[in-house]
Amino acid sequence: MYAKIARIAPVAALVTAGLLLAGPAATAAPQQDSAAVSVQQHRPAGKHGPYSSESSCKSAGKKGQSQGHWRHYYCKYEPHKWWLYTS
């Protein structure tokens, strides 16, 4: 009888210690703030690109405008490349 208790006691102690240590560790896990996740990152106004064609430049401009990254945009052809200017 005592031999069984001697074998079970260390196992029970390990299980108990594991449960006690897992409780505080689980509650100490970092929580994500839902407001921080939903905030859009705005690109700074300026020059973006280059783009290979005027249509791809305008497409990127419209996409950024619809996502709220900038209010205004225009595309300008500079030596062999299209650049997107935003404000």
SS content category: alpha+beta
| Number of H/I helices | 3
Numbering strands along the chain, what is their spatial order in the largest sheet? 1-3-2
* Domain module count: 1
Radius of gyration: 30 Å
Q: What overall geometry do the principal axes of the alpha carbons give?
A: rod-shaped
Sketch the topology as an H/E string, one letter per element.
Answer: HHEHEE
The total beta strand count reads 3
Helical coverage, percent range: 40-55%
Notes on the structure:
This protein is of the alpha+beta class. It has one domain (2-26, 44-86). It contains three helices and three strands. The chain has a three-stranded antiparallel β-sheet, with helices on one face. β2 and β3 form a beta hairpin. The chain is rod-shaped, with a radius of gyration of 30 Å.
